[in-house]
Structures are given as C-alpha cells and as structure tokens.
Amino acid sequence: MFEQNFKNEIIEIRGQKIGLGESKLIKIPIDRLPTGTLIEIPVYIFNGDQLGPTILLQGGLHGDEVNSIELVRRMLIDKSYKIHRGCVIVVPLLNVFGFLNMSRDMHGKDVNRSFPGSKTGSLASRMAYYLMKEITNNVDFAIDFHTGGEQRNNFPQIRYTPEDERGFQLANIFNAPFMFGSKLIPKSFRNQCYKNNIPVIVYEGGESLRLEEKAIEQGINGTLRVLKHFKMINGSIQTPENNTSIQINKRKWVRAKVAGLFTPIVHNGEKVKKGQVLGHIMDTYGETNFSVKSPYDGYVIAKNNFPIINMGDALFHLGKI
C-alpha cells in the first residue's frame, strides 16, 4: 500500500537538495526574539542510498511536551537513523517558543490548531505554514510525538485516523500497548496531512513538563519497528511482551462528582472491572470520602496526577475493547 511514488530521490528543503545517500542538518529561520536573537527550527535529513518511503518524525509540536522532544533527540544521540533505504526527516523540537516558555502554546496560540497556516499570519500560523511547505510536502507518512497535558499522564498509545487505512496499518506496525481511532481535529497537523493524503499516527506517552523513561522507551521501540518494517534500517528490533496492541473501541473520561483531594489507587495501563474503585476524593478536613468507580470493564489509558480536584475535573481516561 505504501510501495509507490517514493519521494526520496531528491529531498528539497529551504532550497537545499539532499540526494540519495546524503545526510544534512538544515535550520529553518522562523522569527527573532525581541532581543534580536534568531529562532530556527533544526531539521535533520537522513537519505538512504536506495529508494524507499520518506517518514517525518516530529517532536515538540507542543512546547511543554518534553517526552516527545527527548524521544526524538535520544534517537539522534544513539545514531538510530542509520538509513540505507528511504529517508527519515527528523524535527526534534518544532515549537521553540513554547519550549522556552514551558508552554503548550506559542505566544498564546496552539500551533496544532493553526494549520494549514499562513506566510503572513501569527507566529503559530507561520510555523504551521513552513512545516507544511518546506517539510511535509516531502514525506509519505509521519509519526507525531506527544504527551498528556496539565498533569494528565497518557499510558503509551497510538492514535490514528479511522478513515485512513494506511494510518491503521502504521498503528499496528508501531505496536504500542494501546491503539485507537481518533477523530480529526479541525486545523490540526493530522487533519491537514489527511487532506493532503499523508497518513499520520500520533504517539502519546507520559505527561507535559516531565520525562518518563518507560514512555520514551516505548516510543523509540515503536518507531524502530516502523523503520525496520519498511526495511529502512538493519538490525534486530525489540518485540513487546504482549505481542500486539490492545485495540480500544470505546473511551470515556471518568470525572469528579465532588471536589477535594484526589488519591488514585489503580495504575496507568491497568485492567479494571465495572464497579471497581479507582480512587478516592476526600475533603480537606477529612469529613467525607467519595469513591471513584469504573463505569465498565476496560483499561486505564490515562490518569490525572494532580491531587487538588474540582467538580467535573477529568480523573481517569478509560478504554474499552
């Protein structure tokens, strides 16, 4: 299904051409700080000496999702991109401004709600524009790395576009602990790529502003499985213990019915039963103790790590097969 019209014979980014068997670092200038300091996006291109698919590996679309940045960076340091077939385009950190401010957004705007972008628009809009024009136009498919946000920890999972059969295939190849179809969000990167017939899978693991080793390892191993599947790299690749992803068909956030101090008693990724107590919410004076129960049999695919809870806050994201 992917074996056609490969784009890696000559990769062109920002007017620079990278031929078969070549590697290059290209820095795309985006803007300057008020101090005049130039902000650039580093883009690594590893073009194999044989024709094959071109894949984009992208971290830091949200600046505070440091797991995604570390995952892609670590593969650079470990020289995991020894590509002999096809091409890998690597963007370790897209949202430089958000990263500097430890923020999801860029100057108050979410880059992942700014596509297709504009050459003369806001900074977030220009970032989206150059990503699509300079980088994404070269690729056959992409893996976009993310984490949970606001103290929400996502257990390693792959999200794909339900209408995209190639995305579904990529999700199976990646083989994260969980996988599920996720609706396209207007003006998102995945939505814009879908319009351009470019399959994108989204890896979610861990939470914002915090490194989580297991989530990083799962992301690296899944990425290597994709590269190995398309014969882009040599060597043996680790196979997960459960062998295949658990396909989630229904999802629900369990929300707080009362306010107070929240204590979870189940682990992320754990299998739970209907009616099982997942955690407790106590008032600050110890007079009440409210039990949070599971609405059905399923798995915990994300949980809230923040102890101070208001009524209606999301506590556990449950997935049902």
Automatic annotation (TrEMBL):
Keywords: Hydrolase, Metal-binding, Zinc
Record GO terms (molecular function): hydrolase activity, acting on carbon-nitrogen (but not peptide) bonds, in linear amides; hydrolase activity, acting on ester bonds; metal ion binding
Secretion signal span: none
Entries under Gene3D superfamilies matching the protein: Zn peptidases
Cofactor(s) the record lists: Zn(2+)
InterPro entries named among the record's database cross-references: AstE_AspA_cat, N-alpha-Ac-DABA-like, N-alpha-Ac-DABA_deacetylase
Keyword Hydrolase attached: yes
Residue intervals of the Succinylglutamate desuccinylase/Aspartoacylase catalytic domain: 52-229
Protein name: Succinylglutamate desuccinylase/Aspartoacylase catalytic domain-containing protein
Originating organism: Tenacibaculum gallaicum
